[in-house]
Amino acid sequence: MRQQIPGIDGLEINTLFCIGRNYILHARELNNPVPEEPIVFLKPNSAVIMDGGTVSLPAQSRDVHHEVELVIAIGKTGKKIPEEEALNYIAGYGIGIDFTARDIQQKAKEKGKPWSVAKGFDTFAPVSRFLPYNGSKPFPDVDLELQINGETRQKGNTRDMLFSIPTLISYLSHIFTLSPGDLLFTGTPEGVGTVQPGDEITAILGNQLQTLQLHVA
After folding, report:
1. 3 state DSSP class of 45
2. Mean pLDDT in residue range 9-20
3. Which of 43, 52, 80, 180 is deepest in the core (most CB within 10 A)?
4. Are the C-beta atoms of 116 and 183 separated by less than 8 Å?
5. What is the layout of strands, in order, in the sheet containing 54-55?
6. In this structure, are residues 86 and 58 in contact, taking their beta carbons and an 8 Å threshold?
7. Are 39 and 45 in contact (CB under 8 A)?
8. CB atoms near residue 3 (< 10 Å)
9. Which among 1, 60, 19 has a CA at the least distance from the CA of 183?
């Protein structure tokens, strides 16, 4: 059974689209080339947990990283959406974390394999409540912050994205048909790092617009 998107009445979580290397400094901190077009990967619905949940570190990895991100909820079906119309397809936005088994990802990259295993473990896509949005005003630039045990580890602003939200929505819709309930994880700023059992994580959107609190086990 699919989960409801918290804060958006009547909308269930559908496909999870994720964007890699959408901030220059994050690409550089992992010694990755800056992409010329969006890097897209998917996560399963089983990766989603909500505010107050527990992130379960898998036995297969010894190096799970946090990646705080703005998350967009799609509100209606769209295909080949022009950038100038893209904001009309947003139902809401919140904050989430793309957890990544970095050691598994690195081995996959070295062998030219997909990242699905590194990105798709249960609990690896937590999301906050969503703020409704109807496209009637410009989409705001917002701060993103992630704290572990009260210490700030990541801090950035969505104005620094390589590919804007309208660009991402349009790009995806020229490949996939976007559907109500799709979630778009828009990429992470620099400062990613390892989490450990017992960590308490807080992700903050803007000036406390939404928060996401998690325990790591």
Report:
1. helix
2. 96
3. 43
4. no
5. 54-55, 210-216, 200-205, 143-148, 151-157
6. no
7. no
8. 14
9. 19
Counted residue by residue, the chain has a size of 217
Q: What is the pLDDT of residues 37-92, one digit of tens each?
A: 999 999 999 999 999 999 999 999 999 999 999 999 999 999 999 999 999 999 99
Give CA separation, 113 vs 22, 33, 40, 117, 130, in Å.
20, 17, 14, 10, 33
| Tokens matching residue 126 | 């937590």
For residue range 123-170, list pLDDT tens digits in order.
999 999 999 998 777 888 999 999 999 999 999 999 999 999 999 999
Contact of 34 with 44, CB cutoff 8 Å: no
- Copy the structure tokens of residue 170: 């349009």
User: How confident is residue 196, by pLDDT bands cut at 50, 70 and 90?
Assistant: very high
Mean pLDDT of 202-214: 95
Q: From the centroid of its chain, how far is CA 73?
A: 11
**Can you tell me whether residue 134 is helix, strand or coil?**
coil
- Which residues does 199 contact at the CB level (< 8 Å), separation at least 6? 148, 149, 215, 216
| 92 SS3 class | strand
Show the tokens assigned to 215.
Answer: 């325990």
